[in-house]
Each structure stands twice: as C-alpha cells, then as structure tokens.
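In this section we turn from sequence analysis to structure. A common task in structural bioinformatics is to predict how a protein folds when a small molecule is present, because the ligand can shape the pocket around it. The inputs are simple: the amino acid sequence and a SMILES string for the ligand, here coenzyme A. Study the lines below before reading on.
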Amino acid sequence: MLRLRPYKSCDAEKIVGWIRDETSFWKWSAGRYDRYPICAEDINAEYDKYAFSDCFFAMTAFEDDGAAGHLIMRFLDEDKKILRFGFIIVDDAKRGRGYGKNMLLLALKYAFEILMVEKVTLGVFENNEPAHRCYRSAGFHETGAVEWYRIGDEDWKCLEMEIRHPQ
Ligand SMILES: CC(C)(COP(=O)(O)OP(=O)(O)OC[C@H]1O[C@@H](n2cnc3c(N)ncnc32)[C@H](O)[C@@H]1OP(=O)(O)O)[C@@H](O)C(=O)NCCC(=O)NCCS
C-alpha cells in the first residue's frame, strides 16, 4: 500500500540514487539544480531554503520497505489557491507499475482536501513521455501554454498541465 508523508532529510540519499543519468536528471529538475550530479546534501540544502516558508512542502511516498517516490508542492499565489507540483520521481526499480500515478492521486487528495487549493499545475518536458502519460493518467491536462528551456546545447519544450478541483 502506497502512502504519502512529509519529506524527511534522510530521504535525500534515496532520491539521488533514483537518478541514473544526466538526461533523466535534467528532465526531472528542469535546471533548478545547476549541475549534475547532485548529492543528498544538495537536496537538503535546497529544501532548507524554505524551512521558514509556509509555501513549500516536500513529500515522500512510501510503503512497507521504505520510500518509493517523491515530489514537492509549492504555492504560486498569495491566496494559496494554486499549487504547483515539482521534482516528481519514483524509485527507478519501481517505475511502470502504477506508483507514479498512485503517488499523484495521493498528492492531489492532499492538495484538494487538506490544502484546499482550487488548482494544481505542473510542467513536463515534451520529450519525457513516461511523465507526460503519467500526468494525463492522473487527470492533468495540457493548458496549451509552453515554455522553452535551454538544456545543454538543446532547446526543450515544456508543456504546462493542470487539474482543477473536482466540483
Ligand atoms: C514520471 C514517473 C514519475 C512516472 O512514474 P511511474 O511509476 O513510472 O508511472 P506509472 O507506472 O504510474 O504510469 C502511469 C501511466 O503512465 C504510463 N507510462 C509510465 N511509464 C511509461 C513509459 N515508459 N512509456 C509509456 N507510458 C508510460 C503508464 O502506462 C500509465 O498509463 P495508464 O495509467 O494509462 O496505464 C517516473 O517515470 C519517473 O520517476 N521518471 C524519472 C523522473 C522524471 O522524469 N520525473 C518527471 C519530472 S516532470
């Protein structure tokens, strides 16, 4: 059974171990870390920046044998009605088995029922088909907005996706 809990600094070691190559790293981080590879301390240092913020929440999905996935949630607006998911990742040994979708459904439940937001957004690179499909499967849809990122010597198209509170 997959469950969701707040992130703990001991999760970082596992998360960095799930990123196996540089291309996956850029797809996951979209340049929010400026170099590859990163270590556990980099993740904790990044999240520590928000230690006194009430707009950023890191979460970990876990089951009996430990952490299985991770994501962050941050408010985009002063009213705290729009939440953005990021750094979404599943243990690389567990991908393609429904973990990502399940984790997102738990995260959406938290967003809509506990944080009481109206809308959840995220961005996904067009070249990240597993992630794109996973987000669609969890109920997100494309807004039509796109943003371009310079990754190495390539331009990557990032698709904006969102899901609104089920009325
Ligand atoms: C993106 C990610 C979280 C998806 O998690 P996952 O556990 O592998 O996905 P799931 O098994 O829950 O699959 C959900 C849906 O996506 C589809 N999907 C998953 N992997 C796929 C693949 N490699 N190719 C095609 N479709 C795929 C599944 O078929 C499923 O669709 P369905 O519900 O219609 O049957 C995972 O691949 C990952 O950690 N990727 C590396 C980090 C990353 O790139 N994160 C994205 C940042 S934007």
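The chain has one domain: 3-120. As an exercise, try to locate the residues that line the coenzyme A site and compare them with your own expectations.
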